[in-house]
UniProtKB/TrEMBL annotation:
InterPro entries: AAA+_ATPase, ABC_transporter-like_ATP-bd, ABC_transporter-like_CS, P-loop_NTPase. Keywords: ATP-binding, Nucleotide-binding, Transport. Signal peptide: none annotated. The lineage of its organism: Bacteria, Bacillati, Chloroflexota, Anaerolineae, Anaerolineales. Residues 7-242 form the ABC transporter domain. This is ABC-type quaternary amine transporter. Belongs to the ABC transporter superfamily. Coiled coil: none annotated. It comes from the Bacteria. Its EC number is 7.6.2.9. GO terms for molecular function: ABC-type quaternary ammonium compound transporting activity; ATP binding; ATP hydrolysis activity.
Length: 338
């Protein structure tokens, strides 16, 4: 299988019983390698069914799926799954196995030697930020959030090019959920994997996604960047989802990074202002635009510098960006599927 993590769905449908309305209905989209794409939609709209077709837990009734340029049925299923990490909602750690054994499940299946497995397990533990003393514990001796991290480490063990994550943080409390989202964003930057992430939490989707696929009743309603979805919702359903009549809510869904990325995609060079002595307020890429607005208002400036956590300037964001976000001219309400 080509190592590239591109995912392509072409006219994919899945019915569970003959003649019933398909759970996934004529879905086509393309996820570029290295992108984090979030599937967002209400309960029962077909998100899990769609995800399970990628690693062939379900087979489509119609249509085709390609990973890295290869149609998935042309590969032996074990070979296919070796390139795909899968994190499920209930974590699914094996309760009678230690954390070490849980993380090592796939490498062991692949016949790695003990030394290589031990080195990989310790590397992953470091990546998810848990101490090595946890390796001899059992899942029940970990908090829900810690178990989720181990689930992620297990999915990453054989270094897959694609990660499928089905509501991985749904059972975690709000504070830990936000922390895990931040960690996932950090890991995504570091590891550059293609991630398909399922949620029905609108805030979570907008926080994590390079692009969002909005689903409803088995169909893709809209596929676009967070900015595109907030500024040009495809229909009344998406409008309700993003609170089109509520300006502050719309601002809270989009972060500073999305503005910088959109400019980059349009070929607009970043302005990297020098720090000036009076400047106290700076924005971080992960700040949402509602916080940016409040900082702009309190600083009395028209624009603010954006810096990463190491103090490296990334550009600037100002009132004009917020205005164009909120008052973008509505485009034709065509579907934005690729
Ligand atoms: N194994 C199955 N057999 C029959 N019907 C199924 C099966 N799995 C899912 N369905 C049906 O397919 C539809 C989509 O289910 P799916 O699990 O994909 O939804 P979902 O979007 O993941 O929902 P949730 O957010 O609640 O997890 C539902 O109507 C469900 O009842
Ligand atoms: Mg589901």
């Amino acid at each position: 299988m080509a190592q590239s993590g591109e995912i392509v769905f072409e006219g994919v449908s899945k019915s569970f019983t003959d003649g019933s309305i398909p759970a996934v209905n004529g879905v086509s989209f393309r996820v570029a390698a290295g992108n984090m794409v979030v599937l967002l939609g209400p309960s029962g709209c077909g998100k899990t069914t769609l995800l399970k077709m990628v690693n062939r837990l379900y087979d489509p009734t119609e249509g085709k799926i390609w990973l890295g340029g290869q149609e998935i049925h042309t590969l032996p299923v074990n070979e296919l799954r070796r390139h795909i990490g899968y994190v499920i909602q209930q974590v699914g750690l094996f309760p009678h196995m230690t954390i070490r054994k849980n993380i090592a499940v796939v490498p062991r299946l692949l016949g790695w030697d003990d030394q290589k497995i031990d080195a990989r397990v310790e590397e992953l533990l470091d990546l998810i930020g848990l101490p090595t003393s946890y390796l001899s514990r059992f899942p029940r001796q970990l908090s829900g959030g810690e178990q989720q991290r181990v689930g992620l480490a297990r999915a990453l063990a054989a270094d897959p090019s694609i990660l499928l994550m089905d509501e991985p943080f749904a059972a975690v409390d709000a504070i830990n959920r936000e922390r895990l989202q931040g960690e996932l964003l950090g890991l995504h930057c570091k590891l550059a994997k293609t991630i398909l992430f399922v949620t029905h939490d609108v805030e979570e989707a907008f926080r994590l996604a390079d692009k969002i696929i909005v689903m409803r009743a088995g169909k893709v309603v809209q596929y676009g960047t967070p900015i595109e979805i907030v500024t040009h919702p495809a229909d009344a359903f998406v409008e309700d989802l993003v609170g089109s009549n509520n300006l502050l809510r719309r601002l809270s869904l989009v972060n500073v990074q999305s503005i910088l990325k959109a400019r980059e995609e349009m070929g607009i060079p970043a302005v990297l202002p020098e720090a000036d002595a009076e400047e106290t307020a700076v924005l971080r890429p992960e700040d949402d635009l509602r916080s940016a607005l409040s900082l702009l208002l309190s600083s009395g400036r028209d624009t603010l510098r954006v810096e990463n956590a190491s103090g490296i300037p990334l550009g600037e964001v100002g009132f004009s960006d917020l205005r164009s976000m909120l008052f973008a001219a509505p485009s034709s309400k065509k579907k934005n599927c690729q």
